[in-house]
């Protein structure tokens, strides 16, 4: 099976521009950016509830603690949220305020309390990338892009492994693409 495409910043911008023209733009933008800027798996994003992301004062947490039931490997993990990602999630929540902390963060028309399943969100991302014309992109592209961007900025593999929620370093290595630009910068270090 081919690896999901890693998006360039230009391609991510194209996807975000497309989302802005569609229904449910705030929701769809936030779900996408949690994968690209937070490195979250689609199933983890689908499993989020308001209480997972909001502090008691209504502000967005800077760490999301995922329970074992919310993760792929059934191991709890912490997702660290950058300032720019907190702003995106806050903008979404401002547009869709919490009714009940236990409700799904990302509603669907069919089931607003439960929200997306991992499969429906996976299908949404697949259609989204296809509609924008980005071949090879899938629901896993956000995580691969997240890992590659961090690696290109010099983040060490052990930190990256923890940020991705991996338990094995070899899994993390498979997520990082080496672009020509990264190779140019590397040889310039000599």
From TrEMBL:
Ranges that cross the membrane: none
What SUPFAM superfamilies does this protein map onto?
DNA breaking-rejoining enzymes
GO BP of this protein: DNA integration; DNA recombination
Q: Which UniProt keywords apply?
A: DNA integration, DNA recombination
Q: Which domain of life is it from?
A: Bacteria
Q: Which residues form the Tyr recombinase domain?
A: 2-188
Single Gene Ontology MF annotation: DNA binding
Q: Name one Pfam family in it.
A: Phage_integrase
Q: Which PANTHER family match?
A: PHAGE INTEGRASE-RELATED
Q: Mind telling me what this protein is named?
A: Site-specific integrase
Specify the species.
Answer: Limnohabitans radicicola
